[in-house]
Design a protein that fits this description.
Helices cover 76% and strands 0% of the residues. The protein is an all-alpha fold. It has one domain.
């Protein structure tokens, strides 16, 4: 494992995506513990993508296999469902001006995990990403890829937890104003819907 891998992985993790949006929303609505739960869920949601990449299954998905299409549309539908739930002020992410709702940490983590599990582009990404940094002569390629996958997961958890914890600090102040809450609901719903539509119609 070299510095190039670490820097590249950090940049990828820092880039905002559906996982970051969900973790930040969870932090705003439920506080620090909710943010940590979302970060844990997003992290474990990476496991199937890493496993598929190490086993070479993602090559079939990249070639346009039926499995890729099924997961792609399932992921898009789930993101659109989250957008609808957010607009209805329900589901694992619900912001309220009067009080912070008590939500199941398991439900938050489960939703976060599904967001990544149902993203086939994540599997294809790892197929293209991990092999580039496998060093010949430094042990089995599989062991190296598993190690890099574990490091990537650790980075994901730390960065997402920081994003969510910072959002939790702002949550109390933000949620005091009804107008701000309505704007945030619409914004988060729009982001989820945008990611869902892009996954459904523009992902390859």
């Amino acid at each position: 494992m070299n510095l190039e891998f670490l820097m590249t992985a950090l940049v990828v993790v820092l880039l905002p995506g559906t996982g970051v949006v969900y973790t930040v929303a969870a932090g705003l609505s439920g506080g620090r513990l909710a943010a940590i739960a979302a970060a844990v869920g997003c992290t474990f949601g990476i496991v199937p993508a890493i496993a598929a990449s190490v086993l070479g299954l993602s090559a079939l998905m990249h070639a346009g296999a039926l499995a890729y299409q099924i997961i792609r549309f399932a992921g898009a539908a789930y993101l659109l469902y989250l957008a609808w739930q957010t607009l209805r002020h329900s589901g694992p992410v619900a912001l309220r001006a009067d009080e912070r709702p008590q939500k199941s940490l398991f439900a938050i983590a489960r939703t976060a995990c599904l967001i990544n599990v149902l993203n086939p582009k994540l599997t294809v990404f790892f197929l293209a990403f991990l092999p580039q940094f496998v060093a010949h002569g430094e042990g089995a390629a599989t062991a190296q890829m598993l190690t890099m996958g574990a490091v990537f997961m650790a980075m994901t958890f730390v960065v997402f937890a920081l994003y969510g914890s910072f959002a939790a600090l702002l949550g109390s102040a933000v949620l005091r104003r009804e107008a701000v809450v309505k704007w945030m609901h619409r914004t988060v719903a729009l982001v989820f819907a945008g990611f869902g539509l892009r996954l459904a119609f523009f992902a390859r």
